[in-house]
Design goal:
The chain is an alpha/beta fold. The protein is 41% helix and 16% strand.
Length: 316
């Protein structure tokens, strides 16, 4: 072999090695990035003293699914301490991506002001920690059990620990962004648990279309059933009889809210096509800003849940 041929072969080998390393590195980087977003230590965030609104306290419960403590914040209304035999309805508020149990407690401040003004009845709000970017789904590898811990561990814990109305007729679910997406999926998947759903700018995606058995890095893994069981459009069809006329649904999103308004409108149309009654609203010119959306609708923010609870109690 001539020196020129030998040099060419060495150069080709070097290029192949570099290319392989780059591809492998990119794949590992994708996995590494996902692991950095959702980490085992994300499940409890201790709030700074004085950072929570009046009436809101921080607690933890034991998740056997993940073998660790998980945090949540809790708002108890003024009547809770004054009426020791009374039971109260509960709203579960799910935070957005990158958040934790302390992230969205502003809504408790709004509720507390309304209760004290005589606008709304006394209600409890629970703010779970759903992980930074879990979308309130169980991961395919079983490390992050966001759905399981909310539905099968946190809700039973709250009902056993506090004086709740431990039934569908006394339980609401809502959330913003990832929390709106998660609350929609959970309500449609477990309609027997909730009488009211309030999606606040939460993407509603065709999750089943994301299935790719060759994608080893996807959060849901390579089992197709995980994608089917997390698709809200399929869950709407599957649980239609339990949803229609029993689960009240409210949706709100800002018109300047990028990709969120697109999927929210699509889900709204899916509900219309299915004949499912719901309340739908858009906030003109508002982007992805929960606090602004709340403040612009502050006077009636909890009216929908209150009416849902009243109707559910009347038809138990």
């Amino acid at each position: 072999m001539t020196p020129i041929r030998l040099l060419a072969r060495l150069l080709l080998t070097l290029v192949a090695v570099v290319l392989f390393s780059t591809i492998a590195g990119a794949a590992n980087k994708t996995k590494s990035k996902a692991n950095q977003i959702n980490t085992p230590d994300m499940w409890v965030v201790n709030p700074a003293p004085g950072s929570l609104p009046s009436g809101v306290t921080h607690h933890t419960y034991r998740s056997e699914a993940m073998k660790r403590e998980v945090g949540y914040c809790l708002y108890l209304p003024p009547a809770y301490a004054k009426e020791p035999t009374r039971r109260f309805p509960v709203i579960y508020h799910l935070h957005g991506a990158g958040g934790n149990e302390t992230r969205a407690t502003y809504s408790a401040q709004v509720l507390d002001e309304g209760i004290r003004a005589g606008k709304w009845p006394d209600m409890i709000i629970v703010f779970p920690n759903g992980g930074r970017s879990t979308l309130y789904k169980d991961s395919g590898d079983g490390r992050f059990m966001a759905e399981t811990t909310v539905i099968k561990e946190l809700i039973p814990h709250i009902d056993a620990t506090y004086r709740t109305i431990a039934a569908r007729s006394g339980r609401c679910i809502e959330g913003f962004s990832m929390g709106g997406r998660g609350s929609t999926k959970l309500a449609l998947k477990y309609p027997e648990l909730f009488c009211s759903l309030f999606n606040q700018a939460g993407n509603v995606m065709h999750v089943s279309e994301q299935y790719d058995p060759a994608n080893q890095t996807h959060y849901l893994g390579t089992d197709r059933a995980n994608y089917l069981n997390n698709d809200p459009y399929l869950l709407l069809q599957k649980n239609f009889d339990q949803i229609n006329g029993r689960l009240r649904i409210r949706i709100i999103c800002g018109t300047a809210d990028g990709e969120h308004i697109v999927t929210v409108r699509e889900f709204h149309q899916a509900l219309v096509k299915a004949g499912v009654p719901h309340q739908y609203g858009e906030v003109e010119g508002v982007a992805h800003d929960q606090r602004k959306v709340i403040d612009l609708n502050r006077t009636d923010w909890f009216d929908f849940h209150v009416e849902s609870l009243r109707l559910a109690a009347a038809h138990r």
